[in-house]
Amino acid sequence: QAEVDVQAALPGSAGNVAQGRIKILALPESEGLEVVNPEPTRGGTDRVFAVVTQADRQALETKLREAAQAEALTQLSSALGEGQEADGRWVLAPTIQAEVARLKVDQAEGTRAERVTGTAEVKGSALTVEYSRLLAVAEERLAQKLGAGHVLLPRSVALAKVKVEPQGAGEVTFLLTAHGVAQAKVEAERVRQAIAGRTLQEAEELLRGMKAIASFRIRSEQGRRLPRWERWIDVELRSEPQ
Question: Which of 4, 98, 142, 226 could connect to 72 by a Cys-Cys bridge, CB 3.0–4.6 Å?
Answer without folding.
Answer: 98
